């Protein structure tokens, strides 16, 4: 497999850095080809602005979706954006690694998604019959994706009744709203809890958990998100009443909720 590892941590000597190094070595030992986007090392610019879109942006009011789509069609996207899109085109699988900060991604990683997944590449795709291709369909369909993250919270505190909220719900914007939205098949995440005070023996366990997940990268069952165009949603994109009848919440958008 071709694997793109997107890494978002400012310190290569951190726990995250050590896990990244172990993960890349594991993939290479397994015979996979690996490319990295080490966002802090690259000094990645996370801010969308008119400079991303070359001459296409002009002096008119910037409408990011439409302007980015035209710039892509005309070959006028900023070279750093094009380079990351080429990595995504090359990849069969994407590992996104980050520390969870304030219930979300580090700004540099959020900005990577903002700038790279432009209209016509990450979204705004149409199927042959004219439907919008998203949530299970799209240009990135067929690629597998997995989040690897560290949290300061202990695992029980991010469980179903934990004060921090359940991890799958905290990660919903990334896993469902970004990765699955663009068509990727999303694997369950690997979370390392209590990362700020992890003793050596628990680091060894975390490293082995990561290695095992990478060994099964091609075979792990994905999160069973419902595809938008699979028949579960009506014309207003609302879940049909006979699916997860009487229930609400994010869990109803998983097929096992039937």
Automatic annotation (TrEMBL):
Entry superkingdom: Bacteria
Record Pfam families: Flavodoxin_2
UniProt-listed InterPro entries: Flavodoxin_fold (IPR003680), Flavoprotein-like_sf (IPR029039), NAD(P)H_dehydrogenase_qn (IPR051545)
Species this chain originates from: Amycolatopsis australiensis
rRNA-binding is among the record's keywords: no
Keywords: Oxidoreductase
Record-annotated membrane-spanning stretches: none
Signal peptide positions on this chain: none
Cellular component, GO annotation: cytosol
Protein name, entry field: NAD(P)H dehydrogenase (Quinone)
Domain Flavodoxin-like fold positions: 1-214
Family: Belongs to the NAD(P)H dehydrogenase (quinone) family.
UniProt keyword annotation of Oxidoreductase present: yes
One term of GO molecular function: NAD(P)H dehydrogenase (quinone) activity
């Amino acid at each position: 497999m071709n694997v793109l590892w997107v890494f978002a941590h400012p310190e290569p000597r951190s726990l995250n850095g050590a896990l990244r190094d172990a993960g890349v070595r594991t993939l290479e030992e397994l015979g996979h080809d690996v490319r990295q986007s080490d966002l802090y090392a690259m000094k990645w610019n996370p801010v969308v602005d008119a400079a991303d879109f070359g001459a296409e942006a002009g002096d008119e009011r910037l409408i990011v979706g439409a302007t980015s789509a035209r710039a892509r069609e005309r070959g006028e996207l900023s070279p750093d954006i094009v380079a990351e899109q080429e990595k995504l085109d090359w990849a069969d699988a994407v590992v996104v690694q980050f520390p969870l900060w304030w219930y979300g991604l580090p700004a540099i990683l959020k900005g990577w998604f903002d700038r790279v997944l432009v209209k016509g590449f990450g979204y705004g795709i149409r199927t042959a019959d004219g439907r919008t291709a998203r949530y299970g369909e799209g240009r990135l369909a067929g690629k597998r994706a997995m989040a690897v993250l560290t949290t300061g919270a202990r695992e029980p505190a991010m469980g179903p009744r934990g004060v921090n909220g359940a991890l799958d719900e905290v990660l919903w914007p990334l896993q469902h709203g970004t990765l699955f939205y663009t068509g990727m098949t999303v694997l369950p995440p690997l979370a390392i809890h209590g990362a700020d005070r992890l003793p050596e023996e628990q680091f060894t366990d975390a490293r082995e958990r990561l290695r095992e997940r990478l060994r099964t990268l091609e075979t792990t069952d994905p999160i069973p998100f419902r595809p938008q165009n699979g028949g579960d949603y009506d014309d207003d994109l609302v879940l049909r009443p006979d699916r997860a009848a009487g229930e609400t919440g994010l869990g109803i958008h998983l097929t096992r909720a039937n």
